[in-house]
Amino acid sequence: MSSNEKIPFLDLITPHVELEAELLAVCQKVLRTAGFVGGPMVEEFEREFAKFCDTKYCVGLASGTDAVRFALMAAGVQQGDTVVTVSHTFIATTEAITQAGARIAFVDINEQTYCMDPAKLREYLERECHVDAATGKLIHTKTKSPVTAIVPVHIYGQVADMDAILELAHRFNLIVVEDACQAHGAEYFSKKENRWRKAGSIGQAGAFSFYPGKNLGACGEAGAVTTNDEEMARKMRMIRDHGQAKKYYHDIEGYNGRLDSLQAGFLTVKLRHLADWNQKRQAAARRYQELFGKTDGLIMPFQPQWSRPVFHLFVVRVNDRAALQKHLADAKIDTGIHYPVPLHQQKAYAHLGYKAGDFPVTERIAPEILSLPMFPQLTPEQQARVVTETARFLEQSGAAKQNSPVPVQV
């Protein structure tokens, strides 16, 4: 590769070119069978993805947003309930909560993993809520809203500390829906069960997005929910299809959230390669770690012993992010920011009344995080160039001599 050739943040062309014959065969099959929505191709993908995630059921849906929303609805979240999640995530997480009729409550993240901090979750449940003596339900003391569910986000492909979260959920009788939209194939070691668990198999349900840039991406919009709960799966199949128990018989009002057969076929083809792609991402992450070493002025991703992340994104922290991003852009290296403004500080959620300082870790990392190029086809030569240019910036700017952003040790 030429040293002047642009390094993309994500390569969505190469894998599709490599799989072109198989993907075109899916198109041909759809055209020749006229099986455009639902049917055998969707059912095949649901079986295969459930198997991949070590769950009994998978329900294919139109998007990851639908996945979080329908999972909450099927699990029993009611209008006016409160659902606890994090502010450091894409807005689809919270859109799904409010569209299910619930209120949003945020807790802060762990500064090393960027996932929900179980200690902050416990603090919220113990200090801001109380158990109603008459009903036994957990109630938010200020809003009087029943707190019924938790949505931990497996951000960047790293699973949240689920043992601690599930312990609190059990104590307070709360539903847990994993937002695994960035964590296809990620694993968590449960000390309680003494085994590795796949993302999407740990809570009552797991929500996945197959937006094209995901580790497993469709060629358009798509999503799914995984669960071991047969009743939840049955409800979600009705919810996604206008509440139909069978054609033209509507037990409830539902939505149009069905998965297209074409996307299901594409996903089935790609799913056969996902384990290999994830391994290549993990290898690329290790190379980054080795090449960067202990570069001053930079904080690298942290991997707990209980986590096998799949590196949907490779996110570093630096004091002068804007300058580093510009330097890399000038060197023809694409980067991204996930996410620059925490949700509690977004205009869309001003009505929730949160203020600066409410979630100090989330607010501290937001201006420092930068996502470096990460995809299965990323070459060692490309990574070396990314590292060289990043180190050059840190040295020239004097950032390496300044105080680095330092995460709190946990």
Would you mind describing this structure in some detail?
Helix 4 (64-75) packs across helix 8 and helix 10 packs across helix 12 (380-397). With 410 residues, the chain is α/β, with parallel strands linked by helices. It starts with 13 loop residues before the first helix and ends in a 13-residue tail after the last helix. The chain has helices at residues 14-18, 20-33, 40-52, 64-75, 92-99, 118-127, 162-172, 230-239, 261-292, 321-330, 360-365, 380-397, and strands at 57-61, 82-86, 103-107, 129-131, 138-140, 147-150, 175-179, 187-190, 195-198, 205-209, 223-227, 244-246, 249-250, 307-308, 314-317, 369-372. Strand 8 and strand 9 form a beta hairpin.
CATH homologous group name of the largest domain:
Type I PLP-dependent aspartate aminotransferase-like (Major domain)
* Number of β-strand runs: 16
The structural domain count equals 2
Number of discrete helical segments = 12
Can you identify the CATH class of the largest domain? Alpha Beta
Largest sheet, strands/sense/barrel: 7 strands, mixed
Second CATH tier, the architecture of the largest domain: 3-Layer(aba) Sandwich
Major sheet: arrangement of strands: 1-11-10-7-6-2-3
Q: Could you name the ranges where pLDDT drops below 50 across 5 or more consecutive residues?
A: none
